[in-house]
Amino acid sequence: MITVTNTKLRQFDQVIEIIEKNNNDKTRLIAILQQVQDVYRFLPPQVLTYVATALNMPVAEVYGVATFYAHFSLEAKGKYVIKVCDGTACHVKGSSKLLDTLRKKLKLNEQKHTSDDMLFTIEAVSCLGACGLAPVMVINEQVYGEINAKRCDEVIQTLINEENKVESAS
């Protein structure tokens, strides 16, 4: 059992719980990293180092797993992760227009994927497995099929309006 004696380490309380829930088992590294990413929305470097230490593994091995699988991210992501399918069916039906619309609205580009306010991250993905609904985008777990640039803009504006309501209520 891992005990926290240093206040600076308290920031890792959730990570400690995840590791303990997985019985400090290094063979469960992928599951541990998935759960950690669920907490932080990405894998911070200091957390990867902590996981490696807690599991008595080389840091390079943990980084190797974190960088090998596309599911893991070493960069902070926004509250809303927008995945735009750019597979063949979606591309033919205009997914590049969706990407252009999103980037323009959120002031992003091909190099900058996350908005300054940390609300939105845009990812172009190879396939979302919903070719019959092309073009498709997914925001967190919500699927938007047969979406066009106008509807895409409306969906994003709705999320922005909801965030502004929450912010002004605080």
* CATH level 1 name of the largest domain: Alpha Beta
Mean pLDDT comes to 91
Q: Strand tally, please?
A: 4
The general outline is globular
* Share in helix: 40-55%
Strand order of the main beta sheet, please?
2-1-3-4
CATH superfamily of the largest domain: Glutaredoxin
**What's the CATH architecture of the largest domain?**
3-Layer(aba) Sandwich
Rg on CA atoms, Å: 19 Å
Our measurement of the CA-to-CA distance between the termini, rounded to an integer number of angstroms, reads 39 Å
Percent of sequence in beta strands: 5-15%
User: What is the domain total for the residues?
Assistant: 2
Low-confidence stretches: 1-5
Count of discrete alpha- or pi-helical segments spanning 4 or more residues: 7
The major sheet is characterized as: 4 strands, mixed
Reported by name, the CATH topology of the largest domain is Glutaredoxin
One letter per element, helices H and strands E, the order comes to HHHHEHHEEEH
Would you tell me the structural class of the helices and strands?
Answer: alpha+beta
Oligomer category: single chain
Tell me about this structure:
The protein has 2 domains: 7-68, Arc Repressor Mutant, subunit A (Orthogonal Bundle); 80-169, 3-Layer(aba) Sandwich (Glutaredoxin), CATH 3.40.30. The protein is globular and about 50 Å long. The chain is an alpha+beta fold and 170 residues long. The protein has helices at residues 13-21, 29-40, 45-54, 59-68, 88-92, 95-106, 149-169, and strands spanning 80-85, 120-125, 137-139, 142-144. Residues 1-5 have low confidence and may be disordered. The chain contains 7 helices and 4 strands; from the N terminus they run H-H-H-H-E-H-H-E-E-E-H. 46% of the residues lie in helices and 11% in strands. Helix 6 (95-106) runs parallel beside helix 7 (149-169). Strand 3 (137-139) and strand 4 (142-144) form a beta hairpin. A 4-stranded mixed beta sheet has the order 2-1-3-4, covered by helices on one side.
